[in-house]
Amino acid sequence: MTGSDAVGLAMGYYNTTALPIYAYLHSDGHPHYAIADDFFQSAFGGSFLNHQWLIAAASPTWADAPDTQRSILDGNGMPTNYPLYHTDATKQDKAITQRCAVPATNSRACGDYAVNTIQPFQQPFRGSPQLPAQTGITIGDKLTRAGVSWAWYSGGWSNANGDVGAPGWTNGLAPTADGKCSDPDSQLNLVWPYCPNKVFQYHHQPFNYYAAYAKDTPGRTHLRDEAEFMKVANNSSKTCNLNSVSFVKPIGLENEHPGYTSEGRGSDHLVQLLSAIDNSACRKDTMVVVTYDEFGGQWDHVAPPGMGATSGPHDWWGPGTRIPALVIAPRLRGNFVVDHTQYDTTSILATIEHRYGLTRLRSDSRDGAVNDLSSVFNAHSPFET
User: Fold this and answer.
1) Assigned domain for 188 exists
2) Residue 73 sits in which domain range?
3) Of 50, 84, 113, which marks where a domain is finished?
4) Is residue 167, in this structure, part of any structural domain at all?
5) Same domain, 223 and 252
6) Are 204 and 105 part of one and the same domain?
7) Same-domain status, 107 and 16
8) How many domains is the chain built from?
9) CATH label of the domain that carries residue 341
C-alpha cells in the first residue's frame, strides 16, 4: 500500500466462483487442467519488464541513456512520492535504472537497463522516449533457427501496425476523407493506416523492441493479429494447423486489467480462446499455459525464490511475487490437479527449449536453472489422499 498510487484499492478481491473461467473449468466435459500454485513473475517490475523476460529472460538495455531518463532513488529505494509515502530527497521515476555510482542505493538495480514502460524504436509506438533497437537473443530467434514454427499473436495488431486487409483489420481499404482511421474505437488524431485501438498496449509487444523483428525483415512475419490465431484455432479441419509455439496477448479491453477494463470481460475472452482450442483437432496434443505479466496487488505470504527463507533459482531481477498459472493439457493425472513445483515465467522458456531441443538463451540466463513445466504431468488431484 505504501508504494502504490492505488492505496487501499490494492486490497480488493473478486469472487472467484463468479468468474467465467471458473464456470468453464467446472462445467461438464471441461478440459483437464492444473493449477501451478508456486509460480512467480519473472522480474520485480511491471508489464513492460515482465513481457521482456517472457521472451528473452533478460532486461533490455540502453547504453549511455541520458540522465533525463534515469531513475533517482531515495535512501529507501523509492523513486517517487506516493499518497502514503513522502521524503524530501531528490527522486526521479524513469524508464532506466539509476547509475551504479550512487552509494546510498547500490543494493538496488543500477546500470543501463530499461525497467519501466518505454516505447519501442519502431511502429507501432506512441510518444517518447523510444528505446534503441535491442539486439539480444530471444526465444523467437532460437525457434526460427531450429526450424520450429511460431508466432506472437496480439489483439489489435493489424490495426496498430497498419496491416491493411489482414486478419483483425477494421479500418477499411482507404482512409476517411480527412486521412484518418474509420474505426470509432481507434485512438484519436491518427493518420491511416496506423490505427491502434484506444487501449492497444504498445509495451505489451516485446518482440517489437528487437532489431530482428523490424519492419521488412523476415522476423516481422512472426508478429500477427490474434484474430488470425482464432481463425486457425476455430478451423474445422481434422488436422491441427496451429504453429508449434504460439504466444497470445489479448488487447487491453480483454486483458483483465482493472482501471481500463474489467476482469469479467477478460475472463470471458479467455474462455473463448480455450474453447477454440478444446473444440479443435489441436486438443489432443496441445499444452496451454495461462498466466500473467505481473502481480495483482494483494499481500502474499509466500516469499519469492531468493527472498527470506525461500530457496530457488534467482538473480538481481527476481523472480517477483506469485502470480496465477493455469495449465491445460491432455494426459494430466485427472480432471483437476495441483502442481506444487516452483516455477517462474522463464519456466515457459525452459519448457519450449526442452521440448524442441534448444539450448538456453545465454550461458547465465535463468531459463537454464528453473524447472520446466513437465512436472505438471506428475501432479495429483488435491482431493487424493
Assistant:
1) no
2) 62-113
3) 113
4) no
5) yes
6) no
7) no
8) 2
9) 3.40.720
Of 143, 119, 145, give the one whose Cα is nearest residue 133: 119
Helices (H), 131-289: 139-145, 157-161, 226-233, 263-278
- Tell me the pLDDT tens digit for each residue of 201-227: 999 999 999 999 999 999 999 999 999
Write down the H helix ranges in the chain: 20-25, 47-56, 139-145, 157-161, 226-233, 263-278, 346-355
Does residue 127 fall inside a structural domain? no
On whether both 270 and 332 belong to a single domain, the answer is yes
CA distances from 306 to 91, 189, 309, 311, 363 (A): 27, 47, 8, 5, 20
Answer whether residue 191 is part of any domain.
no
Alpha-carbon gap, residue 157 to 194, rounded angstroms: 10
pLDDT in tens, 68-96: 999 999 988 899 998 889 999 999 999 99
8 Å CB contact between 119 and 196: no
**How far is Cα 87 from Cα 253, in angstroms, rounded to an integer?**
36
Q: Are residues 96 and 226 in the same domain?
A: no
pLDDT tens readout for residues 299-358: 789 999 999 889 999 999 999 999 999 999 999 998 999 999 999 999 999 999 999 999
Most confident segment among 116-125, 230-239, 288-297: 116-125
Sequence-ordered strand ranges (E) for 7-74: 33-36, 39-40
The C-alpha cell of 96 is what? 532506466
Whether 90 and 144 map to the same domain: the answer is no
Q: Map grid coordinates 479443435 to a residue.
A: 280
The span from the CA of 41 to the CA of 113, in Å, is: 18
Which residues are CB-neighbours of 383 under 8 A, at least 6 positions away?
A: none
Return all residues near 325 (Cβ < 8 A) that are at least 6 apart: 35, 36, 39, 289, 290, 291, 343
pLDDT value of position 368: 97
Residues 331, 224, single domain; the answer is yes
Q: What tens digit of pLDDT does each residue of 237-261 get?
A: 889 999 999 999 999 999 988 778 8
How long a stretch of residues is the chain?
Answer: 385
Is residue 102 over pLDDT 70?
Answer: no
Say whether both 14 and 108 belong to one domain: no
13 pLDDT more than 80 = no
* For residue 193, cis peptide bond before it (omega within 30 degrees of 0): yes
Helices marked H in 221-313 — which ranges?
226-233, 263-278
Residue 384 has pLDDT above 90, yes or no: no
